[in-house]
Design goal:
Blueprint: H1 25-31, H2 39-47, H3 52-62, H4 68-90, H5 100-103, H6 117-122, H7 147-151, H8 165-176, H9 187-192, H10 220-229
Helix pairs in contact: 1-3, 2-4, 3-4
């Protein structure tokens, strides 16, 4: 791990698969910062208007590491990652997202309205992504991470419209002290179990299977970006 990533080294390694559940980009940044090297994850950020500095900002805020020096180093690291992701995805050696040839490419266009709430929610579902969300070829696949591994190092969890079912499951598992007993493969079974309810401060009767209103639109990722951008720098 390079020194530029020292403040997020506690995050789950990128060889662990992502959970098969709709997730916002804010959740991806908080719980899976190393997975931004996955081409489809990096370009999901990019196509929905996130710049590299905003990705770095969201990652570091989640881990209480948003200071000027760490942010500068992390943003520089992200610039290398988008080039690597492009090279991996398109089989080239000199990818640059700023090149004119990529601006009109379908892979770089924002999500559009799919015509229904369910279809829009599918845009954010890792298990339904097309092309599939896969690690770079150089990454050795690992087993599903425990929820404790995923939550490790996260100080500020996504909240409000940025938080989906995955955040609800993480907070539920931490609240009940069972995060080390479940993996990301168990997320949907936890969500679908009617006896499971959200942890405080949510209403005690609120089920885990509720997505925020923004997840039913094509703008969830873009609105997450806007909320991150609105957070003032502490320096």
């Amino acid at each position: 791990m390079s020194s530029t990533d020292s403040k997020i080294e506690s995050a789950v390694p990128r060889g662990h698969p992502l959970p098969p559940v709709p997730m916002s980009t804010r959740e991806l940044a908080a719980y899976f910062p190393h997975h931004a090297t996955y081409p489809e994850i990096m370009f999901r950020y990019h196509r929905n208007g996130w710049n590299l500095a905003q990705i770095a900002k969201a990652q570091l805020i989640a881990r209480d590491a948003y200071d000027q020096d760490t942010f500068t180093k992390r943003a520089q690291s992200m610039r290398q990652q988008i080039g690597t992701a492009g090279n991996e995805k398109y089989g080239i050696h000199n990818f640059s997202a700023s090149d004119v040839q990529w601006r009109g490419h379908p892979d770089f266009q924002p999500f559009t309205n799919q015509g229904s709430a369910a279809a829009n929610q599918a845009l954010y579902d890792i298990s339904r992504a097309n092309p599939p969300v896969l690690p770079p070829s150089s990454v050795r696949p690992l087993h599903a991470a425990t929820l404790a591994q995923v939550a490790n190092g996260v100080v500020e969890h996504p909240s409000g419209e940025d938080a989906g079912m995955f955040t609800a499951v993480i907070r539920w598992a931490l609240y009940h002290g069972v995060a080390d007993q479940y993996t990301t493969d168990d997320v949907m079974s936890i969500v679908n179990n009617p006896v499971n309810h959200c942890a405080p401060p949510s209403a005690p009767s609120q089920r885990l299977n509720v997505l925020p209103a923004g997840a039913s639109t094509h703008r969830w990722d873009q609105d997450c970006r806007d909320r991150v951008q609105a957070i003032a720098r502490p320096w």
